[in-house]
# Entry
Amino acid sequence: MNPLIQPKNASPLILIALLLACLPFSPGARAVVPAPDGGYPGQNTAEGQSALLNLAGGTYNTALGWASLGFNITGNFCTGVGAATLLNNTANENTATGAGALLSNTSGAFNTANGAFALFSNINGNQNTGAGVRALYHNTTGNTNTANGFLALFSNTTGFGNTANGVGALQNNIGGDNNTGLGQGAGTNIDGSGNVCIGQGVHGEAGVDDRTYIRNVNTLTQSFSAGVNDYVTVRLTDGRLGHTAVVSSRRYKEAIKPLDKASEALYGLKPVSFRLKKELDEAQALGFGLIAEEVEKVNPALVYRNGKGQVESVRYEMVNAMLLNEFLKEHRKNEQQEKTIALLKKELQARAAHQQKQIEALTAGLQRVSARLELSKTAPQTVLNNQ
# Structure
């Protein structure tokens, strides 16, 4: 078996043993005399006063600096570079670089601290990474945190799953979980859980959970122009960002059919005026719209739901399409009525013209009769004299 191919689920000890088996020892090779400086049994290396002083059974550890790994007894695969790094460590696979890094750690494993006093207070937190002076400084029992930058996640003690990248990012978080801060000072006001702060100086708010703050998105005004820019959308179920450009194309649709009477649900809707609660709009500006719960009663397809299945908002784009359908239906009715009126008008005009002709013909006949009568009145009378 090729020792460089790692067997599935092989332990680090097995892998190292396989690698050692590949070293080119010659038949006449002998141990180096005197032994290399800092080399100790169990593949341990120590340089510095009291480095690995109390080791008793631990293997593959490296301690460089005063008292580094000083109280490590049985821990394996640990590396401490700098004075008092991993001083109290008893666990496995921790790496500390920088004076005082992971100094208080006892049973926490799989931690990495790079920078003076990074993860300084960690006792039994696991799978933490602190890169930067005093990064995760106060963390004691929190797990799976990542901090990159001077004072990043500085105050965190028990919070887990936090990610901070940038000087002072999430600096004031103490026990909040699953927060993300990206950028210098990002999330410095955050003390809740599930919050996201992106951008330099995006501090967030105290006492809130599951909020997202992004630098610049509320500072730039741009006019909408089709084909030039578009609307960014957020999917309520999982927060996925997207845009509206492709949703109108036939390429993305199936089961297409006219709305017909479906749009008549509009007549059951009840528009209202309202003001948002102060926590949503401090100015409480007057607004017009619909109440989603009321719209749901009319047609459940006309509302959006959040990730918890709760009614969240009205699908106004569908309402707009329904309004258009009802407008077109009325427009077609009006067109048909106009056509009917035009036909009636034309028929009336034809009848009127026919009647006019009849009147004119009758008038002409009457005139002829009248003329004859007049002639008969003025004709000379012949007197018979043979009486």
About this structure: The CA atoms of residues 169 and 185 lie 5 Å apart. Residues 316-378 form the longest helix (63 residues). The two ends are 168 Å apart (CA to CA).
